[in-house]
Amino acid sequence: EDQVTQSPEALRLQEGESSSLNCSYTVSGLRGLFWYRQDPGKGPEFLFTLYSAGEEKEKERLKATLTKKESFLHITAPKPEDSATYLCAVQVTDDYKLSFGAGTTVTVRA
Amino acid sequence: DGGITQSPKYLFRKEGQNVTLSCEQNLNHDAMYWYRQDPGQGLRLIYYSQIVNDFQKGDIAEGYSVSREKKESFPLTVTSAQKNPTAFYLCASIGGTYTGELFFGEGSRLTVL
User: Fold this and answer.
1) Nearest by CB: A43 against B42, B45, B105
2) Is B58:B44 a contact under the CB 8 Å cutoff?
3) Touching check for B32 and chain A: CB below 8 Å?
4) From CA B40, how far away is CA B48, in angstroms rounded?
5) β-sheet bridge partners, residue A24
6) Looking at CA atoms only, how far is residue B65 from chain A in angstroms?
7) pLDDT tens readout for residues B64-108
8) Contact B41 A102 (CB under 8 A)
């Protein structure tokens, strides 16, 4: 059975304190790994797609990396506006079905 | 502006009642999805549709039904057979040029009293 596990469940950071979120997966035949950001009471918002081990993507203070078994979302010098839940998802089939992890809730204090 | 509109945002239902959640998109996307989100759990797929008049069950379809009569619309009915319907429901769509970018609506929060 395909599994996506995110850690930690929650992360509290001081403004400017860099950290990383982990997404580990056990799937047969990864077609893509995706990161989304979700604000409270809102729908998720797409951040990145990663397709192969070694790939990296960056957007402002966020950087996503991918290995054969896990992905990391690095937050560099975070600001309070980076506070959100970050979701990881994987695609293993052709029909665009994504399997999501439970998310990591990040709180950045000023 | 293009996007996905879900309604209502909040809905209260008595046990034993069916309720329908609306999802409309003006992105001209072919595929549409319904996910359920519970605290501490990942999004779980209820139903999805890749073309008009066709849809498939996701991982937790029991107690739910859908229709796809128009490309723009993908309503979800939560029936009385759904044992634990209180949750946050999210509708999403994806276009033909696939990048893994699901576009989500703002969600509908259903509470069963």
Assistant:
1) B105
2) yes
3) no
4) 23
5) A5, A70
6) 18
7) 999 999 999 999 999 988 989 999 999 999 876 666 788 999 999
8) yes
